[in-house]
Amino acid sequence: MDIKDFIKTDVVIVGSGVAGLFAALCLPQNKDVLIITKEDLKECDSYLAQGGVCVLKDISDFGCYFEDTMRAGHYENSAESVRVMIEGSAEVINTLVDLGVEFDTDDDGDFDYTREGAHRRNRILHHKDETGKEITATLLRIAKKRENITFVTRTTMIDFIEKNNVCQGVVCEDEYGERGAIIAKDIILATGGIGGLFLNSTNYPHITGDSFALAIKHGVELKDMNYIQIHPTTLYSKKKGRRFLISESVRGEGAVLLNENGERFTDELQPRDVVTDAIVQEMAKFGTDHVYITLPTMSSEEAAKRFPNIYDACMDEGYDITKDKVPVTPAQHYMMGGVKTDINGRTTMEHLYAVGETACNGVHGRNRLASNSLLESLVFSKRAAELIAGDKAEKKIELPDMDLAAYPPKKEREKEFKQLVMDEIKRKDPQFYDKWCNNENQC
User: Fold this and answer.
1) Active site annotation includes 120
2) Which spans in 10-130 are helix H?
3) Which among 16, 135, 229, 233 is least surrounded, fewest beta carbons within 10 Å?
4) pTM
5) CB-based contact 367:271 (threshold 8 Å)
6) Catalytic-role residue among 272, 346, 366, 368
7) How far apart are CA 298 and CA 332, in angstroms?
8) How confident is the model at residue 433 (pLDDT cuts 50, 70, 90)?
9) pLDDT tens, 271-304?
10) 3-class SS at 208?
């Protein structure tokens, strides 16, 4: 193809969640930025994040916060990445507040910090139980006003354009099956995780790990692809579709887990993987596919104010979470592994970056500490944007021979991508694969 057939821009960002949006806003406004997203702008997992976003309140908490993150990750975290994230937290929170993000406050007008599982101190900011929605909506509103940022929705990345391990852009397909290519100096992957490959997941079904499949095809290094978090408490339902998350912050405010006999069986504020294992064992003991959660520390009015989204969702199913036993079950939730990056979002392919859940800089280790996901997305997408902004070197455009008509149809491509990702998970951890992936009820 002739270069004139391509769309050209300075930076193309694949994904419109918190990581992609914040990267775009942190780039200088003299750079043209094109954001493509698979569905509509608001259909991203960032919108679904309920609990909150961590922050280092003061330097005296650094050691405790660092240790809580490392312990939750089974000490397989990158200590450097954890340090960078914690040290960068206050700055990005201040930026969010300056941009207009509203966090809940107490009666004195100070931030109302809460605590979740595996945190020893209250250090989590929140906006009721829709923190991700508040942050993402605010960033999106501002990004839409920036003249240098263009959005293209319902457009799927189907390939990297690369030659000699230098990324030159991406190939895309729109909702009508039309294909095109985008050439850019820098490419940022912010496509989220792999929830759409699982039958039971808190993720949107279109989040199917496309970046990981393409990384495998192009030899971009991945890291810890078997480190996949199963969230312990999603609202139990026999209906198909995305599972509704009952946030860990509910347990942080006093909710307890009960078995079939109405007995409490675990410490609810342990790390997520520990609580999930306890629930799985309890379900096996009683031959059930769920346990129960209840919030005895709040009145209905208090719960409706603090957790309006969760309270209403439970009421829609006929349960008052403050009085009733609400059935919950584990489901796939978050990807700790992903495309391997350094602390600035750089992958092993030149001019290709990854941020947010798509990236694996090692900050989470084997298991993510609650409410570190939004913070990680913000801190490291900002660092990637700053690195791109500071790169003044000219990039030589070298395009491979391409035939856009040669790509397989959508269904065939989706099947291939899923197989590539699942095979990699199985290769890394056959035991996890057999437990959560090689099962008709899971994948």
Assistant:
1) no
2) 18-26, 62-72, 79-99
3) 229
4) 0.93
5) yes
6) 272
7) 28
8) very high
9) 889 999 999 999 999 999 999 999 999 999 999 9
10) coil
